[in-house]
Structures are given as structure tokens and as C-alpha cells.
Amino acid sequence: MQLRERYLKQDFLRFMLASMAAQWVFALYTMVDGIFVAKGVSELALSAVNLASPYVNFLFSISLLFAVGVSTIAAMYMGQGKFNEANRAFSQILVALAVISLVLTLAVMLWPDVLAVFLGAGENVQPLVEEYLLHVGPFSICFLMVYSFEVLVKTDGYPKLALFAVTFGCLLNCVLDYLFVFCFSMGVGGAAFATGLSQLVLIFIYLFHFLGRRATLHFVRFSFDWKIFLRSVKIGIPSGLTEWSAGLTTFLFNHAIMACLGEEAIISYTILAYVNTIVVMSMAGIAQGAQPMISYYLGAGRKNVCQRLLFYAMISGGIISALAIAAVFCGADQMVALFISPENTALYTESVRVLKVFSLSFLFSGVNIIAAGYFTSVEAAVSSFLISVGRGFFTLAAALVLMIFVWGGKGIWWSALLSEFLCLSLTLFLAHRYRKKTFS
């Protein structure tokens, strides 16, 4: 990994910036679909992309669950000089992901209608959601493998390659979206097909690296080891849940909005969900950039260095949160205009308002996400799990119920702020307990 303790800040920035940029590009995949669909098909089609997005988030979360687990294990092995063990863990988890992807592909192709209804699609938008799912389903294996490769190539010591690959994939997705939506008039299905095809191309870029001579992590023969598999799952569950939190948040909000505000409000939520995804994935990028470094130094017995890396990550997260809130309050009009024409005055004005309200949750989300990532890196899986499950489901569900009870449908837009604040209380308690246990 070519880590040098005396250049810790430089190494942290090198890994963090590459990880954040890669996360931004991943977030742009669905956003690009949304922009092209909104302009090339209809605003109703935009809500269909939003309703289907939790499935794509679910694919990414499964991929990250295994990738972070094996990345942590492999980094620890490499810190101890055990490269054969690192390669066996790497190979085993990727084969397991391939098998899982086949099961998911069959499920979405056989029951797209059931999945569309489960995701919250109403009668008018359900056919569009099914169309999107049927076109993205065959590429499930690509989504799973590409995200895993993106994490593991950084663990292998090549964060710039990860950045190049995902940037190239996003640009290719833009070109294909234009061709399939505008030139070939393939509608929502064309946008999904463009995204899947761009992921397929990235598979070959990563395979060229891992099958080459310069890679430290290689595919090797292995005997399936349940201990490694379960250890990877245990370590990776919190990160997978953090990744899925964007999809789960979308899922819960879609159902609450449909019940309290109606189908048109889904369009407003779609826009703020895109912005939220970029911020959440920025924080996840900081956590993932620090993760292999923290695990490496933990394996080398340097706990004080791990604490310094956590400090750097938290400072970075605070800066990103402040910039994100400022960007929303200064540029909400321009953000909304990417999807909705200002001539649609009522929908446009309401979308700008709720985007500003929702952005206040960024004050606390970074601390929660980065803390969960740190706990994952040091194998404090229970603490990481509690934070991830808390912010991804329990505190959000509780906040939605409470805000709707107090303010009705308008309270939905304030629930994210309350949810992140409640989760922050849990995060601070777990951090105090971990520090007392580790350094007392």
C-alpha cells in the first residue's frame, strides 16, 4: 500500500480525495439518468427513476458489505506481511458476490411487478418503474462487482485508478443516456440500459489491473472458508447499511409522501434525494478512504495513528457538511431547475423550499457516517452496526412518525434533521465507551 507514517496527512488526502471523487461519480449515475429522463421523457418518468433507485442502492450496499469486509481483512493481512491469506480472502469474496448477483437478477426479472409495488409505485407510474427494473436487472452482477473492485483497488494501493475508472464510467453513461433516451427514444428503459452498459465496461478495466503483474491482490485458488466469509460479513454489514441508508431513506420517504402528500411531491423528493445521495456518499468516501489505512495501522499495532486518522476524517466531514449546506442555500434554484421547469411555478417553488429544509440534516450526518466507518475499520462491528441501523432505519422511522403526527405532511421534510440528531446522541455515547475501553 506504500503507506508512510511520517507523511500521514498526505497519504490520508491521497486516499480520501480519490474515494470521495469515486463516490461522487457513483452518485451521479442515477442523477444523470434522472436529468435525461426528466428532460427527454417526462417529470412522471423522473419519479419512476426515483422509485426504482432503492434497488440500485441495494445492489451497491450488498457489494460494499462484502468489499469493505474483505478490504479490512486483506489490509490487516498485508500489514502483517501475510499476502497469500489476503489473496485467498479476496478471491473467495468475489466468487461469492458473483453467485449472489445471479440470484438477484433472477428475482427482479421474474417479479418486476411485485418489486415495483413494494418500492411504492402508484398505478400511474408502475409501468415505468417495471420498465426501468427490467432493463437494469440483467446488469446486477456488474453493479455488484464494479463497486467491490472500486473499493479493493484502493486497498491494493491504486486510488487513482479507481477514480479514473468511475469517472470514465460516468462520462460513458452520459453519452449512452443521450443516445438511448434522445436519439433512440428508448425512454426510461434506455436510461437504465445505459447505466448498466457503462458498468459492464468498467468490469474489464478493473480486471485488467487485477490480472496484471503490478497488482498485489490477485485471483488465486482457494478452499471455501466460512470463517473468512462470516468475518467479512460481520465487518462489512455496517458499511453496507450506511450505503443502503440512501436507498432505505428514499424507500421510507416515498411511502410517507405517497400516503400524506400525493404523487407530485415524489418529484420534489426525487431532487433532494439526489443531493442527499451526493452528500452521504461524500461522507462514505471519507470513511472508505481512511478505512484501509486505519486497518493497516491497526494490524501494525499503531492505535495512536488510527486516532489521528479519525481526527482528519472528522475535520474533513465537517468542512464538507458546511460547504454542502451553503451550496444548497445559495444554489437551490439552479439545482431544481435541472429537473423542473421554473414555469411550473408551484412545484418549482415547493421543491426549492423543501431542499433547503432537508439540507439542514447534513449538520449531523457526516459525524454519524464517519464514526460508523471508523468502527468498521477497527472491527468494532457492534458499534458500527448500531449507528448504521439507527440512522438508516430506526431513528428515521421514528422521526417520520413523530413529525407527521405533529405537523402532518409538511413535517416529512424536517424528519431527516431530527433523525440524524437522534443518531448523533447514540454515536457520541458509543465513541465515549470505545475510547474509555481502548485507551484506559
How would you sum up this structure in a few lines?
This protein is mainly α and 440 residues long.
Outline the structure in words:
The protein is mostly helical and 440 residues long. The protein has 15 helices and no strands. It has helices at residues 8-40, 43-79, 83-110, 112-118, 126-136, 140-155, 159-183, 187-210, 226-260, 264-299, 303-337, 345-359, 362-377, 381-407, 415-439. Helix 2 packs antiparallel against helix 3 (83-110), helix 9 runs antiparallel to helix 10 (264-299) and helix 11 packs antiparallel against helix 12 (345-359). The longest helix is centred in the first third of the chain and has 37 residues, at 43-79. The protein starts with 7 loop residues before the first helix and ends with a helix. The model has no long low-confidence stretch (mean pLDDT 84).
Which regions are unreliable across 5 or more consecutive residues at pLDDT < 50? none
Question: How is the main sheet built?
Answer: none
How many helices in DSSP terms?
A: 15
The tally of strands reads: 0
How large is the radius of gyration?
21 Å
Q: Indicate the structural class.
A: mainly alpha
**Mean pLDDT across all amino acids:** 84
Tell me the distance between the termini: 31 Å
Q: What string, H for helix and E for strand, traces the elements in order? A: HHHHHHHHHHHHHHH
- Helical content, roughly? over 70%
In what range is the share of β-strand residues? under 5%
Shape: globular
